[in-house]
């Protein structure tokens, strides 16, 4: 099982280093980590997905809270979160396979970001599960390159952290 | 306009800093120059690590941050052990390091190291200052962070050009750090639950640690344990919270603790842990204890609660305030039978006896005799190794302090810490207990001792080996290897070279008068006590 932790931090040099350093030192495993600035340019939001075994999440939350640069930490309720990940994937295509890839994109709601005579570059923003599915469906077409952002997430409804 | 270094000194003064422990080098010269123009006292150490330990000794006696200041590169890396030691022992400290020019950072120029990066895993917080106008705020924040919540070291790294930058400083009156708001008061409902649990308990037990010294909660501890009738056990960092002969004090827990303290821990029906991590050295089977008994954990650091012990009732806040809150509920346990039983067991514990004529000093007897002769409020600074365990087990504390590093266990801590103690409380009787290995880790500071003209007595357990490792190698490995201290100097002569008188004894028959002579000598003194290297910490 995994859990999604949303962390608001001061948008300053060295903060990300402190956070990832803390995970390394305490032997917490990061499955995914995404950072971006919030509506307040002094504050960044870091979305971290961790393996939730062994009471890890509680310790992660407490240890993160101890960092002076961390303003707020919240473990999101998995049933009530909107989590999205962006994937950009480049597949090798020929005139024969191009249409199949395009069909797949249409079914999955992905976009074609770039196309050449021998390749197509596709993008999809969706739940991590569907991004995984998309990636696996493309595998038979010989994937040249994959880039994924890691998940960003917020809680449903009007509440905020 | 003044420069950044002058603003730094003014900021330190505004935080009440009276002394800095340091070691200069090129990149910290502007700050040293500015310091020289103030009335802040300066102690030159002989290696940077010990500037950290001195600041630690000072902080522990003053209850406020100690300050150390060193140069960039090797100065900063040498200080790392001092910082890590303070971190593991939760000692408030502000460390200042010089740094290369800010515009050259990242190019690996002469004496550049990323010290804020290097210290990240074992420091409460750190700053790399890139504009001198930030110095007053950074200093104010650093002292606030170091001395509140769970105390610890904070590092301020200041490039030399920032120390020289001319500014019109603005000194803030208060701090507001939105990510840092430690709890002070315990949750009222939780406190009520704890009070009710105490009143329902027949075998309550308080397990207290160094956090109570940090919180200055000794009086509250005494009031609570006496009025609620709860016996007390301590961790090594909590030694001295109650006098050894206090009727409710059962002594130290753990592998090196007293049988009665460990028995109480294993049979209690309500374990109240206060200001203690109850880490691996103190409690070897926390799961087993937690599964059997109700546990309450009072601590300023929420992350400690549930880390080593699963806790029935957690209370987060300043332990002094929490204990006061608890006292106001007047809890009283049904514990007289339990107390009587434990007290009888405690009395029956054998006292270390002298074995004159054996040609070797009995460590337990040495420690007991030393403790008995010390002033009531003496401060004992204890190093690491067998000597530490013997002191912890056998040196009877009265109303003084037992300063050791229980968290990092850094050899060489004792003498520098004692010098920090002396700068804080010059009139307190101060004694160092160390081994012959640890002595050789701090012996360069005998020069600092001499320069300070202060009075610290040093008691060395002289067994010719790295005793604790020697003991472990005997019991668990193929035998002793690489622990023989052959090549050690004639310690008496070494002390004499620093103008410090010394004496070497090798029999229990000499212990009593040798300690008397040491304690009545004016000025520093080295007492070398020959101990058979085969003596182990499990013997009494
Ligand atoms: C800086 C440091 N290095 C190594 C150790 C590991 N260590 C713990 S106790 C000990 C032996 C200490 O020897 P000594 O100071 O002679 O004390 P004794 O045990 O003989 O009383 C050692 C090497 C340590 N705690 N700290
Ligand atoms: Mg030794």
Describe what this molecule looks like in 3D.
The complex is a heterodimer of chains A (161) and B (540). Chain A is of the alpha+beta class and 161 residues long. Helix content of chain A is 27%, strand content 42%. Chain A contains four helices and nine strands. In chain A, strands 5, 6, 7, 8 and 9 form a five-stranded antiparallel sheet that branches. Chain A has a four-stranded antiparallel sheet with strand order 2-3-1-4, with helices on one face. By secondary structure, chain B is an alpha/beta fold. Chain B folds into three domains: 2-167, 3-Layer(aba) Sandwich (Rossmann fold), CATH 3.40.50; 188-349, TPP-binding domain (Rossmann fold); 363-530, Thiamin diphosphate (ThDP)-binding fold, Pyr/PP domains (Rossmann fold, 3-Layer(aba) Sandwich), CATH 3.40.50.970. Helices cover 39% and strands 17% of the residues of chain B. Chain B has 22 helices and 20 strands. A six-stranded parallel sheet of chain B has the order 3-2-4-5-7-6, with helices on both faces. Chain B has a six-stranded parallel sheet with strand order 11-10-9-12-13-14, sandwiched between helices. In chain B, helix 6 links the parallel strand 6 (125-128) and strand 7. The termini of chain B are far apart. The model of chain B has no long low-confidence stretch (mean pLDDT 96). Residues 435-437, 463, 465-467 of chain B line the site of magnesium ion (MG).
